[in-house]
Amino acid sequence: KLPSDSFKYLGWCDIEEHDVRGNQLHCPRVREGPSEEELFFRGEAHTMKKRKQATDTEKRQKKLQENWENCAELNLSFQDLGDLYQVENFKRILRRLIRVEKLWLVDNSLTDLSAIRLPRCRELNVNKNHFTSFKQLPKIPQIQHLSLAENNIMTLSGISDFRHTPLESLILKRNPCEFQERYRQLVFSSLPNLKMLDGIPKLPEDCSPPDTSFFFKICTIL
Known about the structure:
222 residues; Leucine-rich repeat, LRR (right-handed beta-alpha superhelix); 7-stranded mixed sheet; elongated; leucine-rich repeat; repeat; TILB protein; LRR_dom_sf
């Protein structure tokens, strides 16, 4: 056992005698630790002190210490959200990010953040999650740079919702929709203000209309 074992499941808020606030941390660990019962069955009961029921005053102090409302740049990637209560706690934090401008949520097994609103977010990275639709993304009216690589987005349905945002660059690499016919043309026609797709600037051929003559080139053999 290492001396740090007793802290392995603690968030920074649970460590006594410090005055660090949430907006001072770029990569905080916000995933809550397992229950005492689960730790017992794992044989890791020594890693967590017995929890006491938090008073209302302690809850208020923790909320002030977290200070998510004043975060401007935050990395909440790789949180290992394996249980439902972990996800709910994670969403509780996201709902408080009213001033965040840059946010990374990489590899968190996220499936639906449609109930979350990030009013000032300009840069969002949700690579390596489990989104299947643009409709499952949070509300991001000020978004400029959006990265969705390695999700499971099947179609471009819903992408036009970003037409009225200042979105400049979009990454959809390694999503099934990338293999759709005329993929780049369809994306740029849905988002006329987009400047870059998958790291490649908008090209003249990306603006050309669909090739309608294609249908007249088909030869039917009876």
